[in-house]
Design brief:
Layout: E1 7-13, H1 20-28, E2 35-42, H2 48-53, E3 60-65, H3 73-81, E4 87-90, H4 101-111, E5 117-123, E6 129-136
Parallel strand pairs: 1-2, 1-4, 2-3
Antiparallel strand pairs: 4-6, 5-6
Amino acid sequence: MTLSPFFSVIIPVHNKAPHVDRAINSVLTQSCTDFELVIIDDASTDGSADKITAYSEERIKLHKRSDPGPGGYAARNLGIENANGQWVAFLDADDMWFPDHLKNLQILTNKYPKPKCSVQRGLRATGMIGHQILFQGIENQIFCFPQRNT
């Protein structure tokens, strides 16, 4: 029996070939290694899928959509549907994480296990500060932005 990973990291990708390696590598080099990486190719036409399939890392799971969704929410939802982790964390394909990002999130989720949603700040690849949203995994429930109170 295989235990589920602590995190499912979801990266939706639509035409981000110049950036996707940086995003993927920032996940693969995390100090916390208890994760799977779910990448959704949202109908890219710029070679993004070729860059993703070049990775031989077993924690990477690639799923493809034939039609891009507006705003990436459909790709994120497909990622959630295919996630096996206890927690789901999103990373945009043109962003990156510092090496202890997941470790710090794991410390917080262990300290505060009951919240349904946590908003984290991360450094965007452009140098601007962006938001990273982490949802606690709830079976058979799909989240869109913004999260509704249930």
